[in-house]
Amino acid sequence: MEVITAKSAGFCFGVKRAVDEVKTQIQKGVKPVYTYGPIIHNEQVVDSLSRQGVRVIRSEEELSQIREGTIIIRSHGVPKRIQDKMESLGVHVVDATCPFVKKIHDIARKAGEDGDVLIIAGNPDHPEVQGIVGWATGEVHVIESAEDLEKLQIPEGKKAVLVAQTTFNKLKFEYIVEIFARTSYYGYVVNTVCNATDERQTEAREIAQKVDAMVVIGGRHSSNTQKLYHICSEKCANTYFIETLVDLDLKPFQSYSRVGITAGASTPNSIIEEVTEHVRIKL
To answer: Which of 90, 93, 105, 208 is the most buried (most CB within 10 A)?
Structure first.
């Protein structure tokens, strides 16, 4: 059995930065320590931090009840009105928004100030996209496909600015950009798909093409992990999506000679190493 583990698998820069910030606040911050939403989309990490006293604020209503302590903004970011509300509470606010996401917030704000229409390629239900929308100061649209783009009716004479959720499928975004270039209205594109996302997706695609089976590790609610699973499934019919080693049934693997392993940006290295080692030993 040959096992190929993606070099790009595991925490990306933004996720590691956010998790490290929580750990710093646990040690040195004003207690109690809160995160607005789970700090990352990984239940194992969130549960571990919970055991260390970190509490998760799950709604704006819950946020309104906070009177002391530290609130950490997760890597996905939050809408401006939520951040303003946090700062009005008089508690210690730590902004752990990924810098690459922050860049999109700035683009969203400036587009509105310039009178431009903002178009975001992404999942409208994802917290990162909701945060970006919340920083827009003008007209904004969220699209998930080239078909959605073609349905938009931008007022004549308006300039449109096209950006992407940082974890958006790069090839899909490139196709949307092609359609955008052929539209009747004018504007410009800022490719905000994160380099780490691009690298991870490219490597996963390359590995999936040359293995008998592919294992994708990550949280069920992780957008970037879901995209990895979709990409791998297109290239390898035997693709498995697991959160931890417990989810992995090795019986089907008895007939495979080469297995690939990749993981989402919110998956700890410890879980990746555990799965990789288990596959190597058992097969």
So the answer is: 208
